[in-house]
Amino acid sequence: MINLPARENSILSQFIAELRDVNIQNEPMRFRRNLERIGEIFAYEISKTLNYEQKQIKTPLGETNMLLPDDEVVLASIMRAGLPFHQGLLNYFDKAENAFISAFRKYHKDGNFDIQFGYLSSPIIENKTLILSDPMLASGSSMVLAYKNMLNKGTPKHTHIVSIIASKEGIEYLRKNVAKDKMTLWVGAVDDELTAKAYIVPGLGDAGDLAYGAKE
């Protein structure tokens, strides 16, 4: 299942537009804040899909019954661009456990590259709701590698994969390599083109560099 919240008119479209806009991208703090705000919007949308249980709440003047989320949530993000996006999700899922993944492109002299896994810090995710995020879903290789390494920590009840901008090729790769019956994909925008170097067009450029500065 693919959910595209930006198809409906909302402030989400403005935040995504600002991420793409070359005239705004020279403000790293604003770029990071927009990643965070988009994470908050996705968290709200995902919260509608969780299981809820009625619980009694005591107020200063009495008691009332309310439906509250009943799922154990684990937020997992691919560093480094994923950090402010993760914080946005965590702002709303403030009781969630957290996992962090290092996956990176290792370039070769011929210009080709491999996706390599570097590090994973994660709680047990057995029978929990996993929300795995990365702002960009380009080829899909990093996301699939991260997901498969997360499975070493258990089998989640359901996985929500969240990206702000995805390529059609990346979505198709994900469909072929992740169990579809237990996965929901959330995307802000889907772009048609993926270059030979696996950059999304029109995309927005390198999200990590825009958020934290260029790397060597």
Your description of this structure?
This protein is globular. With about 220 residues, it is of the alpha/beta class. The longest helix is centred in the first third of the chain and has 20 residues. Strands 1, 4, 5, 6, 7, 8, 9 and 10 form an eight-stranded mixed sheet that branches. It has a two-stranded antiparallel ribbon with strand order 2-3. The protein starts with a strand and ends with a helix. The relative contact order is 0.17. It is about 30% helix and about 35% strand.
Report mean pLDDT, rounded to a whole number.
92
Share of residues in strands? 25-35%
Largest sheet: 8 strands, mixed
Number of helical segments with 4 or more residues? 6
Q: Into how many domains do the coordinates divide?
A: 1
Low-confidence stretches: none
CATH architecture: 3-Layer(aba) Sandwich
Give helix % range: 25-40%
CATH domain class: Alpha Beta
Order of helices and strands: EHHEEEHEEEEHEHEEEH
Number of beta-strand segments: 12
Structural class designation: alpha/beta
Shape designation: globular
Q: Note the gap between the termini.
A: 38 Å
CATH topology: Rossmann fold
Rg for CA atoms: 18 Å
Q: How would you name the oligomeric state of the polypeptide chains in this document?
A: single chain
